[in-house]
Design brief:
Number of domains: 2
CATH architecture of the largest domain: 3-Layer(aba) Sandwich
Order of helices and strands: EHHHHHEHEHEHEHEH
CATH topology of the largest domain: Rossmann fold
Radius of gyration: 17 Å
Number of strands: 6
Strand content: 5-15%
Oligomer: single chain
Distance between the termini: 11 Å
Low-confidence stretches: none
CATH superfamily of the largest domain: HAD superfamily/HAD-like
Length: about 230
């Protein structure tokens, strides 16, 4: 049996939450909008258009939301070009270990493809992934399972043989809906939060909470499917 790993990007592999928050603040300031308390944690993992149109309700239509989303991501790319793009601790080592072991990896992210391409190229990580699903590739974003299901299809691996790595509530809910085991990275929310979340939201598939990738091995990955 062959297994595969499907990774979220922002907050899971890349430590980008502060850069995203800053880009949202710049967008809001430019147009005279306001961000509600807890905005970044409540929306992290979701697609921009749905955040703008359905959550903060800055505009009512998709076309206007897409325009604002594009502006937001221009701000974001400017920020990371100036400040850099740090990885979550141990992420590169773990990805390289999977590659060496012949385990296929994919990205399933709510970020636009242009952001993803710029980020992977800047970090020299393009060759560590066999597939990449971005916001434009699905009609429903997280918490729907669609990004994870499509990533599994691109890898040619049945969804039940794929494990998801996530940091957001929407992402973990999407992994549950896809019926995939999930490794939760405690970056956006701490371990105490996730332990409480799992107690209140049981899943039929294994779920593990780790602070970062240090100490998490290919053997630990294999145990998710036992």
């Amino acid at each position: 049996m062959k297994n595969a790993a499907i990774f979220d990007w922002d907050g899971t592999l890349a430590d980008t939450i502060n850069s995203h928050l800053e880009s949202w603040k710049l967008l809001a300031s430019k147009h005279g909008f306001s961000l509600p308390d807890g905005f970044i944690k409540d929306t992290f993992g979701k697609r921009n258009v749905e955040i703008i149109r359905d959550v903060v309700k800055w505009v009512p239509d998709t076309a206007s939301a897409e325009n604002l989303s594009d502006q937001k991501e221009i701000f974001y790319r400017e920020i990371i070009s100036q400040n850099g793009l740090p990885l979550v601790r141990g992420a590169r080592r773990f990805l390289e270990g999977l590659k060496k072991s012949g385990i296929l990896s994919a990205i399933a992210s709510s970020t636009p493809r242009k952001n993803m391409e710029v980020s992977l190229a800047a970090l020299g990580m393009e060759d560590l992934f066999e597939a990449c699903v971005c916001s434009e590739d699905v009609s429903r974003g997280k918490p729907a399972p669609d990004p994870f299901i499509l990533a599994a299809q691109k890898l040619g691996i049945p969804p039940c043989d794929c494990a998801v790595f996530e940091d957001s509530i929407a992402g973990v809910q999407g992994a549950n809906a896809a019926n995939m085991p999930c490794v939760i990275i405690a970056t956006t929310y701490d371990e105490k939060f996730w332990n409480s979340f799992m107690a209140k939201n049981p899943s039929g598939k294994p779920r593990v909470v780790i602070k970062n990738f240090d100490g998490f091995s290919e053997d630990d990955f294999a145990k998710l499917f036992l």
